[in-house]
Specification:
Strand content: 35-45%
Number of strands: 6
């Protein structure tokens, strides 16, 4: 489930940051002008996936389960080469988890 979505403008164009409520995926950053998706996993590993066009990304972002969509259509598809980029720090992971927790608590209050 999508928790928070931001479109950010920079010198190279815009990109999309999304925080997900998923058992495996914490956050994604998509660069449409590069057809590149960065996936931050719950354990902190961050990988980039290439050849992700806007249609594929929209299907991913709006999927009922981003984790299942990711596994079926991106991770196991050789058309989307990947590379490990870096690992999030514990503080970065906890910041994202805090946003997810606050979102759930606010939703429960409604």
């Amino acid at each position: 489930m999508l928790i928070e979505r931001k479109i950010i403008e920079d010198n190279d164009g815009s990109y999309i940051e999304v925080i997900h409520d998923s058992s495996n995926i914490l956050k994604t950053v998509y660069f449409p002008h590069r057809n590149k998706l960065f996936v931050h996993f719950v354990r902190g590993g961050t990988y980039s996936y290439t050849n992700i066009n806007e249609k594929m990304y929209e299907e991913f972002e709006t999927a009922e389960s981003v984790g299942k969509f990711f596994q079926k259509n991106i991770a196991k598809n050789t058309k989307h080469p990947f590379a490990k980029e870096f690992t999030l720090t514990d503080n970065e992971i906890n910041e994202i988890k805090k946003i997810i927790k606050e979102h759930k608590e606010n939703k429960d209050e409604e």
